Write the structure tokens for this entry.
Amino acid sequence: MGSRKSFGMMIMALGLAGGLVAALGLLGADLSPDATWLRELSAQAWFKPLMIALLGAAALSLVVTVWQMIAARLERPAPATSYVRKSDLKVRPNEPISRLPAYRDVLRELCLQKSLSAIDLVNHLLSAGLSLGASDIHLSPGANGTRTNLRIHGLLYDMGTLPEEIHPFVVSRIKVVSDLAIFKKNTPQDGRIRLEDERYTARVSVLPTNHGEKVVMRLASQHGGLYDIEHLGMSAEVLDLLKALLNRNQGVIILTGPTGSGKTTTMYACLQHINATRGKSVNIVTLEDPIEFDFPSFSQTQVEVAQGLSFAVGLRSILRQDPDVIMVGEIRDEETASNAMRAAMTGHLIFTTVHADSAAGVFNRIVQIGIEPVHLASAVCAVISQRLSQRLCSHCRHEAPITPTQRRQLELLNLPSLPEGPFFASSGCDECLGMGFTGLTSLYEMLVVTNPIRDLITQGIPAHKLHHAAAALGMTTLLDDGLAKARLGEVSLDEVLRVVTI
Ligand SMILES: [Zn+2]
């Protein structure tokens, strides 16, 4: 592009010079009658044709230059090629964690190479992360080099240390492929790596630290199979209840739990189930912040508060779009809450999340936002509370008696009697890289709004009383679900006690 431009400039300069000479030559004799040499020169037979040819060349060069300028304007910007090609990555999906040391060894070898390449390092980290099912890749610069880590099933695994001198090049490479400003080193930046392989995405966050820029790449595999209610880790009883709820045509199903407890995954799985069982006869619309997964069969809208598209505004517009099933990422204001409740009573099935400690606590939270308990009681059909917990490694788990500390913690829960084991623990092995865990599972508590519960909500009773009333009516609490999974050896008793707080 640059050489073409300078060539054009050269042609124009030559053309203009030629034109000037020709103009002076033709008019010179008349302008300065004393210059005899000029008169003699102009009397030559070849003089006039040469000057006319020069003038012609000048005009032509001018036309060519103008044409080039117009063409450059019309030409679309050349497509950028700064993405990671499919052939750059060697992704073998669903590699077991026990393969992580092999990826670590390759990274170490890459670092020892004489021609250390930032491109190879970034490609290898992406390949390793995607193969091992990592959710995040961390690059943390420090005094002794850049620590690299993969977060797999909630645990952070060490991938090795990169030499200090390569760090700026690695960061630049990541910025190039994620369309970030390379020279901005003192401001946090967010981007997305443009991977040619559309099954995967990587969101990039860059943060300045005292040792350089720290990078976290959040990975996602676009495998819709991840969102299947059968694979969420629900007990058969909870799963049956959920399937019955998903057959309904109206009502609000609320999810609650701490950030990162898998609420969005559960909502996506519910929507996928409705899509699979009711086919194309339902219009599924979502309002999210952010959109975490692109589903071909739903209409998904991203909340953009800066552009005036809040949850409240978005929901108002969605309701004019004749939806059957609506997912609203979160309810935290009165307008969204009241529109959702009204929609749920007029033939729409709504999924949303509300921040609360327990399933029973959700009702008080929505009443605080400004919804009448009576409206809430008639609109909401169920609340699901969930927690993520580490799944015990099936290779090294073993039965373990209740320790005195666990006994004291259990006594604090005021259970009618101490739960009976056997319970399990793990000591770590090669299969789980010594961690004792090989993934995550979820604990669930589902409060279905039946008539007795509806009456209690209308009366506005405190959350803990509603919780006990629901448990007395047969609700499986988070603790019940956790203890059942602990007896099966899926999770440890410590893990249950850690994630269940009532
Ligand atoms: Zn193990």
Remarks:
- DSSP finds 17 helices and 15 strands in the chain.
- Residues 103 and 456 are 56 Å apart (CA to CA).
- The mean pLDDT is 89.
- Residues 2-31 form the longest helix (30 residues).
